[in-house]
Amino acid sequence: MEWNQLEYFLTVARLQHVTRAAEELSITQPALSHSIGKLEEELGVSLFERSGRNVQLNRYGKVFAKRVEAAIMEIRKGKQEIEELTNPEIGTVSLSFLHTLGNEFIPTLISSFRKRYPNIHFELYQGSNTFIIQKLEKGASDFCITSPKFDGNGMVWLPLISEDLYVVVPKGHKLSNRREVDLHAITEEPFIGLNTSCGFRSIYDDIFQSVGFHPKVAFEAEDLSTAAGFVSAGLGVSLLPSTAGLRMDGTSWLTVKKPICSCTIGLAWKDKRYLSPAAKLFKDFCSNHFCYVSTED
């Protein structure tokens, strides 16, 4: 039994016509009929009900076709895995990331990676911190890029880059003409916070705990973009990273003198889970790329 025989058999079964199958396979009709006949002789049963050039699988053919399709699929997967091992610069990386990172950080990262590895493709998932961590936990993603660090079971977290956080106030606010402030300057201000579905919420909580006060939360947004929008509308002040898409009209951004306010963006993956060669290349690229960027800065 040969590979070609199995492919010929499935093509005839799909088209239910010997001549059309021969045309699709670019072989002569007698050669195709001979191949199918040799296969049936080896199996000891007929696989088709014939009516001239028209054919249909009989009960033996239906059983055999189901097994052949599964076998060919497994063989093709095996060939793909071997190809990835012998040529790691192909394949697909599955990546999930926070909404706010989609404006600049992720496109820039993937663009830099694709310049070096143009044949590696990406499956992308964008959402809340809870959403992207679930994707990683369930195996739908090879990696997630998030902030802050999380300590899930069997998780590895590689810090990539640290970003300063700024006090953001509406234009015309009494603090808007300042270049920098202490965090205590917003003690009595209505604060645009974040709800617990946003990863940055825990960063806020840790910072405010360290300075010994809790902000007067006026609204809790679901994401950083919404928080920035509420500040732009004059509804309060906030503490935000200077991420592309957040610097909206109607806002002033003030450096925090003290305490140090920053967040770290990192790459997370499951320690014991299989990573394809393409995924390993991406992980190594991130590690080296951000080490280089930090050195340059």
TrEMBL record:
Belongs to the LysR transcriptional regulatory family. This is LysR family transcriptional regulator. The keyword Ion transport does not apply. Residues 1-58 form the HTH lysR-type domain. PANTHER family: HTH-TYPE TRANSCRIPTIONAL REGULATOR BSDA, HTH-TYPE TRANSCRIPTIONAL REGULATOR YBHD. One of its GO terms (molecular function) is DNA-binding transcription factor activity. The lineage of its organism: Bacteria, Bacillati, Bacillota, Bacilli, Bacillales. Keywords: DNA-binding, Transcription, Transcription regulation.
